[in-house]
């Protein structure tokens, strides 16, 4: 991979966590990172067979470079050798990107990732990372609840970290076929408000200024979901923190 040592190390670290936790079985899960400092490409020119078409408008991303997981790549393999499962790409016009290095095919969820990166640039949020994976407890909750309000009322009271790290709480996106334009559009719309969203009966997608921050958000909310599931399994309906306790905590941390 072209002189992107720190970025590939970050992919390796995050991929290892996803694999160890069981949140990216087989070839599940995908990650993307918009590069803050694009690599030097002065001497390189796109080869015709390396120019690919996307199903989404990428006008806002023209000229940007990304590291993206390749289609069929496994997190356990990226954790060992990140170069084998990543693509380095540059957006060359509103519908085409150039695969500079790496695999010949991007993740099937690129349309969703591209839409989110466009959103981040529009909002000037400074967020450059997107992580999608399959945390067990959050997926289980989507089989129990079909209301965003219901899920948030239950799990965001169970520990104070959820309100501190993910203050806007969790978005819920109705079921849509993976890799579809419907899912890409719904994800972009939902992440206008949230930084972590649950794809119904599928998995989660999170954003961050870097991959580690996106992973932090998933870990924290998944822990709350796991607490809820564990307490329910022994017959309890947890009340969680009171409104007063939440207010005092937020005030103490100036949130």
Compact summary:
It is built from nine helices and nine strands. It has helices at 5-21, 75-80, 110-123, 136-144, 148-155, 160-165, 181-190, 211-233, 243-252, and strands spanning 30-34, 51-53, 65-69, 86-91, 96-102, 129-133, 171-173, 196-199, 203-208.
Explain this structure to me?
The protein has a 9-stranded mixed β-sheet with strand order 2-5-4-3-1-6-9-8-7, with helices on both faces. The model has no long low-confidence stretch (mean pLDDT 93). It has 255 residues and is an alpha+beta fold. The protein has one domain: Class II aldolase/adducin N-terminal domain (L-fuculose-1-phosphate Aldolase).
Descriptive keywords:
9-stranded mixed sheet, single chain, 9 helices, about 260 residues, alpha+beta, L-fuculose-1-phosphate Aldolase, elongated
Largest sheet: 9 strands, mixed
> Uncertain runs with pLDDT below 50, 5 residues or more?
none
C-alpha Rg (nearest Å): 19 Å
Which CATH top level class fits? Answer: Alpha Beta
**Helical amount:** 40-55%
- Estimate nothing, just give the exact number of structural domains: 1
- Please state roughly what percent of the residues sit in beta strands, choosing from under 5%, 5-15%, 15-25%, 25-35%, 35-45% or over 45%: 15-25%
CATH architecture: 3-Layer(aba) Sandwich
Average pLDDT value?
Answer: 93
Strand order, sheet with most strands: 2-5-4-3-1-6-9-8-7
CATH superfamily: Class II aldolase/adducin N-terminal domain
Sequence of secondary-structure elements: HEEEHEEHEHHHEHEEHH
Structural class by helix and strand composition: alpha+beta
- Number-wise, the strands total 9
Query: What is the terminal separation in angstroms?
Result: 40 Å
Shape: elongated
**What is the CATH topology?**
L-fuculose-1-phosphate Aldolase
**Multimer state:** single chain
Tell me the number of helical segments per DSSP (H or I, 4 or more residues long). 9
